[in-house]
Amino acid sequence: MLATLAVIGLLAFTAPAAAELKDSVVLRWTFIAQRVGVAQYWAYKQSKGNAAVNADLASAFAVHSVLARTNAALAPTLLDGPLYDEVAKSGVSEAVRDASAALGIKIGIDIATASATDAGLEVSYYRPGYPDSLARDNEYVFTPEQIGAPRDFLLYPNYANGTTFVYPVSKIPGLAAPYLKAPFKFGTPDFEAENKVVLEQGGTYAPNRTAYDTDTARFWLGAVSGSGGQGSAGVTGMVQNISIALLPDTFTPEQQAAFFAKLGTAFYDAIIAVWYVKFKAPRWRPITAIQKYYNASWTPLLGTPQHPEYPSAHQGIFGGGWSVLVRELGGKSDFTFTVKSDWPNIPDRTYNNLATAAAEAGNSRVFAGAHWAQANNDGFALGKAVGEYIYDNIDKVIYGKQSALKW
Length: 407
Fold this sequence. Notes:
Vanadium-containing Chloroperoxidase, domain 2, PAP2/HPO_sf, V-haloperoxidase, 53% helix, Phosphatidic acid phosphatase type 2/haloperoxidase domain-containing protein, mainly alpha, 2 domains, signal, globular, two-stranded antiparallel ribbon
């Protein structure tokens, strides 16, 4: 399943054209697989004071060990070759190589062993509690394109039962409590105001959406497939690329590993919190509300993700990672950077402020027709709270040492 991979595993992405960080073993393996920072960070920490171990090489072995255990079929092709290259580059003796391998492999085994007790790795077959034809106001049902095989299933409901790496599971119900009753209800002035924007800007035909806004909906998915369900994973690669472009080039590999450990953990722990809210109070999608009450033929610009609307997973993940990056940059926002586009017909975009890019990423989900604005804003705030905690507590890894969420 994807839960462990979401933190440490295999979601490859394209390196930015001009990465600012100096090339290192950390970046080389980050390019192979997103969010391997926890394993790499542990390798550097546990190598301190051990003259018999090469920390860089231990880091490479740690990543390889984790990935080979979560998807063994990849080892002969994607993983083994780069590992052999790292050994050759290191120029160390056989004794140091073997000691480094022993440490890295142990880290991989520790992480894989911890994941064995993660309920987020179990199959979870969630369905709405009533027939699709009896859509109730404010409650989630399958959207029209999801009714009938092969799409009559929910994406990753098991995340709602997952255990976190750093943010304590016991804190999630308290963190989530304000959001469980927050979504604007159908018929209220707030709902009508937000829904008017989606009607005007989020449909296949949208008279008030510019060409730039249409591209924005796809651009911030970070996935060429165009499926709304793909964007939650794609945005992590975009945030990582932005981080690589903006972090100081004086960072040592150990500092790089510490940062990417925080970033990857924030992505994953935030998604656990988001999914808890999604399935604790499952909310209908814009297409359901709009087709029922406003326009029976309305369709969103992009495909609707196969899970409840509130809060936005895209923005929850984004908020978790974004908060870590902003903290690492000293809370400053006025940086100029270019974000690479995954879309062949959409050019790369350059921004001169982090806040501008973050706001555009949130708006992209309205332009896609997948979310009302409140889900984006609250998803970002929820993820940000998780990311802030992780930034200050990265050394308190509790994965595998806590119970699953209580429902």
